[in-house]
Design goal:
globular, 10 helices, 12 strands, alpha+beta, Ribosomal Protein S5, domain 2, 304 residues, Alpha-Beta Plaits
Length: 304
């Protein structure tokens, strides 16, 4: 595909972080991935990705955690997204980050989704929604949801999505850990724990009750149904997260959970006012590098 660039010179797209309200992990598949059943929610913590025509493909990252994002195009998901749209992509990509790096909130996937949406516009790619979602699935397991946004049920390795009816707003406090966790290492630790019977082998909890609670907009019921099969592995690798989870519930959150593969801890609160109190209490206890508030569900990747 020729790089038919937009005359405006640059395009910026925004994508949101995600929280897994439910994450059930099955056995490892032949391709190395685990079979997943997950309920995603996109929350109001965003990365912005700007793409503009250039002599060569390049990546520059600014914002919190920028030093930990690979800027080598061969290793950067946003650059891979540009190449997925045009194998000869010659664009300068700037990523403005607020989503934590290696935090279990799909920051890299959000960047890929935003780059995919921005590059299809910049290059004038005549792709329909199905083609965009297929490209997203090629890039990574969480990238399709980063394009989709809202609330969705993911199966397979998380890339097969079905929309979920979710009434009302959900208010979160996010405790950003001082160090990140590698997703492959967390899955490997879960496999190790299961082999030692320290964690359940097959997922025993389905998301059915959670889906009903979301449809009814019952935040208290949703709080009681948050579940993450990867949490024991994340706690094993970073035991300090146990203190973080206790601090959040002690501060008044309805419930706390490790987000995805961690180590970010997400605390569901009763309302927006509660998030302010819980965030202030958590910040004062020094159990996290930073504390933020967010709400969901929010839209998927889009041009801004």
């Amino acid at each position: 595909m020729a790089a038919n660039t937009d005359s405006s010179g640059s395009i910026t797209a925004r994508a949101a972080a995600k929280i897994n309200l439910h994450l059930g992990v099955g056995e490892a598949r032949a391709d190395g991935f685990h079979e997943l059943t997950t309920v995603f929610q996109a929350v109001s913590l965003f990365d912005d990705v700007t793409v503009r025509p250039a002599a060569a493909l390049s990546v520059r990252t600014v914002g919190e955690g920028a030093a930990d994002v690979p800027e080598d195009p061969a290793r950067n998901l946003a650059a891979r997204a540009a190449l997925r749209v045009d194998p000869d992509a010659r664009v300068a990509i700037e990523i403005a980050k607020t989503i934590p790096v290696a935090g279990g909130m799909a920051g890299g996937s959000a960047d890929a989704a935003a780059a995919l949406v921005a590059c299809t516009r910049l290059f004038g790619a005549d792709w329909d929604r199905a083609e965009v979602m297929a490209a997203a699935a090629d890039l990574g397991s969480d990238v399709p949801f980063s394009v989709h946004g809202g609330t969705a049920l993911g199966t397979g390795r998380g890339e097969a999505l079905a929309p979920v009816l979710s009434r009302g707003d959900y208010h979160w406090v996010l405790a950003i850990a001082k160090t990140g966790l590698s997703t492959p290492e967390v899955f490997a630790e879960l496999d190790r724990l299961r082999a030692k019977d320290e964690a359940t082998g097959e997922t025993t909890r389905t998301p059915d009750a959670l889906l009903r609670a979301l449809a009814g907009g019952d935040v208290d019921e949703v709080a009681g149904l948050l579940h993450n099969d990867l949490q024991p592995a994340a706690l094993s690798l970073q035991p300090v997260l146990r203190r973080t989870l206790r601090a959040g519930t002690d501060a008044g959150a309805l419930a706390g959970i490790v987000s995805g593969s961690g180590p970010t801890c997400a605390f569901l609160c009763a309302d927006a006012e509660s998030t302010v109190r819980v965030a202030a209490e958590l910040a004062g206890r020094g159990v996290a590098k930073s504390v933020r508030t967010a709400h969901g569900p929010v839209a998927g990747a889009r041009i801004v």
